[in-house]
Amino acid sequence: MAEILSFEKPKKKKSKPEPSQKVIAAVEQYFKENEYKYKPVDEHGIFRTGFSLDCKLKDVSVAITAESNGVMVHFILPVGAGRDDEDQTRVAEFLTRANYGLLRGCFELDLSDGEIFFHDSVYGLGDFVPSQKAIDRLISHGLAMVEMYGDALLKVICEVSTPEEAVNEAEAD
Fold first, then answer.
1. Which candidate, 48, 64, 93, 99, has a CA 20 to 30 Å from the CA of 19?
2. Backbone region of residue 50 per phi and psi (left: phi > 0; alpha: psi in -120 to 50; beta: other values)
3. Structural domain tally of the chain?
């Protein structure tokens, strides 16, 4: 006779901790000291801004999330992979090849809508508050990665280059 197994009910997901006011203040200080325009933090702890780029993408939208013990940054690219499986497969291969070897951060693709972004973060223990230098490194690194791979990504989206050729060209420059 088969044994009936009993399972515990799944635990309810913990609600996301409130963003630290000290982390919010650190991000605001960074924007003000660098004289960057930004939209103030919303109820989810997210600041929004944008930067001009030195590549064919021209600009990038940035969402900076202040969390209880760190900062997460998403650089949302102004182009997408579309919803076609073949297009998304090419872009996913390109992003995977670009991510290989990156020491920090990564490119991501939302398969539901084709959105592409670069993600990076810095976290610590307890009441960690990132320094101005750490926040600057997050922003600078993300912008550098989008600029480095932006033109190559466009070549893949427009089917001018294969993912492998495009990444090799981006990394050779």
1. 99
2. beta
3. 1
